Amino acid sequence: MNDYYPFINTPLPYACDALEPFIDEKTMHLHHDRHLQTYIDNLNRFLEENPALQEYSLEELLILWRRLPCHLQAPLRNNAGGVYNHRFYFDGMRSAPSPAGTDSPLTRAMARQFGSPENFRSQFREAALSVFGSGYAWLVSDNGQLRIVTSSNQNTPVLNFRTLILNIDVWEHAYYLKHYNLRAAYIDDWFRVVNWAEAENRFSSGRHRESSPLF
Predict the structure, then answer these.
(1) Is this structure's pTM higher than 0.90?
(2) Which of 164, 170, 173, 171 is nearest to 188 (CA)?
(3) Which strand (E) or helix (H) includes residue 24?
(4) How many angstroms separate the first and last alpha carbons of the chain?
(5) Residue 172 contacts residue 30 (beta carbons within 8 Å)
(6) d(Cα 48, Cα 157) in Å, to the nearest integer?
(7) What stretch of H or E contains 63?
(8) Which of 210, 162, 196 is nearest to 91 (CA)?
(9) What tens digit of pLDDT does each residue of 118-130 get?
């Protein structure tokens, strides 16, 4: 992963057609090679104009933007978020999805919080459908407590006290070519390609971080 300026568009961890028939090849190509590339180009341009920020990692930029002068906050939040959120989304899927473990730390936490995998799926689906316009739905951990949250546009849930586990991009460019305006059908198909092994890894590796925030 390329986490510092200058940022590059690192390859997908699978071929653009690997998620067929659930997410189509053309959408993946446009989403990664065009949309994500635009955020990367804009973020690099912003950091070129503000060299004092070049020493920070992508995650650090998403924490410290609130401390900047007002005229710098939105362009940094939007473009750094666009890079981070898209990378997180792409890395959270795989061509041969791994099933959620039946006795893993994440599965046990989901059972405590939501009652069953089916209840989690239903609540996550409802949250993703509730996003008005463009944004994301996320599964996050707050000190080990799982929560489903949403964010608008390219906003990213606060990183310094949370572990991000899963996200789904519900901007129309993520699904419109295949699913048209049927967001619910896209969400159902997305569940077919979730990389649960990566979600488990994020949950487990995030436990220490939640008690030792970046800032």
Answers:
(1) yes
(2) 170
(3) none
(4) 22
(5) no
(6) 26
(7) helix 58-64
(8) 196
(9) 999 999 999 999 9
